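REVIEWER CHECKLIST
Item 1: Sequence provided? yes
Item 2: Single chain? yes
Item 3: Sequence as submitted:
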Amino acid sequence: MEKINDEPQIDDDPVEKRDNDDEEDDDEDDQFDYGDGFLVDSSDDGEDEEEEQRPCTEKKSGNRRKKDQDFSLHEDDYLLLEDNNANFERKKYKRWKKSTEEEININDDDDDDDDDLSHFIVDEDSHGVRKINKFKQGTDSNALRYANDLFGDPEELLKLRRKDLAYNEKIERKIEDEFGPMVLSEKYMTERDDEIRKLDVPERMQISEETFGVAPVDESSIEEESHWIYARLVQEQGLCCLVNKDDIVRFLELYHVQKLEIPFIAMYRKEQCLSLLDSSDHDDGDKKLETKWHKVLWMIQDLDRKWLLLRKRKTALFGYYTKRFEEETCRSDLNKSLFESVIKSLEASETEREVDDVDSKFNLHFPLREIDEEGQYKRPNRKSQYNICSKFGIREFANKFGYSAEQLGLALSLEKVLVEDLEDAKETPEEMALNYVCAMFEDPQAVLKGARHVAAVEISCEVLIKKYLRGIYMENAVVSTSPTPDGNVVIDSFHRFSAVKWLREKPLRKFEGVQWLLIQKAEEEKLLQVTFKLPENHMNRIISECNEHYLSVGVSKYAQIWNEQRKLILEDAVHGFLLPSMEKEARSLLTSRAKTRLLSEYGQVLWNKVSSGPYQRNDKEAVPRVLACCWGPGTPETTFVMLDSSGELLDVLYAGSLALRLPDVNDQQRKKKEQDRLSKFITEHQPDVVALGAVNMSCLRLKDKIYEVIFEIVEELGFDVINGFRDILVVYADESLPRLYENSRISSEQLPQQPGIVKRAVALGRYLQNPLAMISTLCGPCKDILSWKLHSLQDFLDPDEKYEMVEQVMVDITNQVGIDINLAASHEWLFSPLQFVSGFGPRKASSLQKSLVRAGSIFVRKELINHGIGKKVFVNAAGFLRIRRSGSACNSSQFIDLLDDTRIHPESYGPAQELAKDVYAHDGIVRGGEDDAIEMAIEHVRDQPASLRRIVLDEYLRSKNQDNKKETYRLIMRELICGFQDWRSPFKAIDADEEFYMFSGETKETIGEGRIVQATVQKVTSGKAICALDCRLPGILSKEDYSDNGRDIVDLSNKLCEGDMVTCKIISIQKNRYRVLLVCKESEMRKNINFEDVDEYYHEEEQNNAMVEKEKAPKEKKQFKSRMIVHPRFQNITAEQAAEYLSDKNIGESIVRPSSRGLNHLTLMIKIFDNVYANKEIIEGDKESKDIVSLQRIGKTLKIGNETFEDLDEVMDRYADPLVTHLMTMINYRKFRTGTKSEIDDLLRVEKGENPKMVVYGFDVSHEHPGSFILSYIRSANPHHEYIGLYPKGFKFRKRMFGDLDKLAAYFKRHIDDPVHYYQ
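Item 4: Structure as written out by the authors:
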């Protein structure tokens, strides 16, 4: 048992010590006047002398000073490093303090203090900077003489000062030299971090403005943005009837103008945006409120950012387009009206896609030219066909076809009706094309083709046409999926892609959830083919409307000929450009929607966890003392840790034998001793609850043992302890988060020198005490929280996307729960949620944390201003920071305002006090002094809540002319009755389903009824067999379920033996008994699983019937029977299908398939080379032959040649993998050649001709005998050939086995004259 001291020895804080020294110096300095504006650190006279001598000494010993510079930092840097627990050796230097004009605050009225927030002096980094009086003319000579005696000659001091300033500048740069950028960034020690800390704007807003830009705050801009956001909410979320547009305007004003964050708005500005909040946030009941995830507000913030990016991009493009057009006005072919059209489209665009359309159109018509003399433009690396046609004048001919792309777009969008009919040409297109024949376009047909291409491209880039087609496509396009040959084999009923294997014409608008992400992933893995299609009726509509507006209505011969060309243009534009472009957009849209939905589901799971309250014993508010236990297999041992109510580690106990089954007598004695130690441990520390990590089935026994120990304590000590121990519960807890903490960097900082299992156990207990703080701990710079498995598909999300959602959830819940500042100041781990408080972020939170730790505790909310918080940040954060007697403030007698221990914001203290006094007076209680009366009134309301509830709020507000503050007064009334009541849902123990999945290590996706599994027989009786699945979950196989003739089986032990592997199906999961029921009947094994939640567009049967008809001939030739074998390398396919499967795989890939020789054989097929496959026969032994099912199972022994194996895993490990290793050795050998035997012979003849005196040779693959190689060589004139066998042990050549090719080649060279032994 490892004991942790309750009060460990703590070294003096160097920062706090320095502050105390500064205070003493200030007291000593107060008796002097400062005549020259210099401030000098002087603890004693000796240091003064040393301080004056140091610069002079540096002149004489430059080397020593250089050495000091290499290992010294600025004093403030040392403080920052100490606060961040950085390891370093500090060297003390006394030096002149900077005393510039900016540091000297001239203020003759120092005593005129004001409580107004704007008059607080905030500068955390300015340690020891004082307000001093500037030296005035006319000071008496005595003061000057005294200053000279004290400081020396002023001119000499000025020289030393200049040198010292230069020295300090070098020292300040040393921190960047000693620590890398990663360390500085993680510790928030960069210059950018300092700027964020100092600026009085909420930190998250600063980060957002860096990325998305600063929002305009004028009335017209806010009105325009609110209109855009409202349209998006209605279009994308369907919130038309729920959201008030005026509330969006007010939200944007609060957010951008007043710099108020979402938690503050949701808590203290409800009246201004009621429609954006959950209706239950402002009910009239007295029931306990619940935490609310303000999704609409976060949606508006996300849309606000999108709007800023869109506006930023449009502004940049407008400037770029204007500049380009002005610089190229010398071009004769520039069309001003076209440019104005582009600008008009840019101004009207409301989405990123529409901006993309405008940009595409501009770049098409105004491309970058070649580099001019000044190098302003760069020639494109590759010229498009459109640019080539334009260069040779074909674009001019394209304009002869009739209406322009812009005119067609106006007509299709119904913005302008084309009233002028086309004027039909008086010559054919070919005749007109003759005028444009050139070297690049040599005949009229080439000219026509180029002109059609130009017209089609311009149509496909027209903004209005794309908008028209986009509306039809996104509303009506359908998606179909079908498996590839590989996918048809791989995707079974339980595969993650099974639900999307066969989709037929599912409309884009019907895709919900994350289904598209699965389709996209399957397509990337080449398991699915995905097709997009626009139904025929909609295609006909598009073509018809385009023809109506683009073709000539003339009936002449020439009109018809030109119309044929126009039809070709439209077909090329629609099918060649527009539809592929729309498909690309559709894919992007589906991905965006699916990710948004997945992010929402991911966030909801996290919200459910963080919005769950801590464990509470008998509804007590006190935080419980937790005994946390993590099971260990022996190394490490099962570990118990004791945590006090603040989550601090008190004691550790190791009990490795407690949960083991130990038949040996000595082991039983050791187990008994551990039980006694645990009994003493529990008796000494008296925990309120025991948290046991649920990881496997051994935890069931461990839980029973803990309860057994607790019952023994009660029986032994009797009635005196019954009340304390009889209610102790052992609750299971999830170890997934504690394991992340165990391996995180923050755990090493918080619990140094502790082994991993102790860190895990501490996290387990702390999660029970304060889940919000424990989760926040992993939200540091390393973002370990992203590794927490919250959703089965979360890997589809980018880390930045996930953390943005994590931050959103954590900010919302943290501000609704609040933070006890004084308690956190005494216990570091409780500070972790501070970064999510409104107005804060990791930088401002760490700065406040350091300041509060140095101060120890605070007693008034307004004191926070003195700890580096600006006014705007204070306004955002104040209501969420709880000030009460906790931590080091418990023993203080200093007054604490009761309102500081409520969610009431300081801005509402006046109304709250007035309300309390009115209730107090209404009850007829005599008042004392004014201040005492307020305090007594608040205490009275808290003690007598019924008095407050009797007030009719509407009438009271009318009497105070505060009708528009109803929500604020509701909050005041609730908080006066009970400040910071926990709104989170009560702690809920893990249910039976969660326990089952934790103990088994499986998930709903990996184990379920109907899944085929392999099980190992552990015990057999006459009526049933007890098996173990791969996850160690026990399974029961009865003799009736063993085969279809199970009733005829008298004794199951005659069929199965211990150690047998059986392939079976799960028919039932008994979660309460932690076991599954299995079946091996052939009739059950062949049944398909019918899932309840099937997509209405899923049509597997029809698709399968089509495939059966298509592949009917190959299936008729199939000469094997399917096998009941579950293994990653096994597939029920023919030799032809196996060859097709391996065709695009790497050399050396292998597959096991049924053999055409019968049910006692298997075939191992290995890809030797392209189109060369070796088949190795596997003979099965020790098989039951009672029925077809037993014959379809794999044999107990497997034999290849003379080698015997127990299972397919051993075949792969001992046979296939070594054989492939030697195969790759041969292919990568320097003498290996590729080609047929005759081609290799020709290569050797050429080599022989170059080196006639040498024997040339080479190796190549044998196509006639797959699995062997040919050694070809020429001694004199004719080539000779010998075979080399490929085996797991190496290469067999002339009846000898070689493990190394160099040795084989050496043997061949030495014995080239021996008689040849051909490989048989």
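Item 5: Key structural point noted by reviewer: The first strand starts at residue 2 and ends at 3.
Item 6: Recommendation: ____
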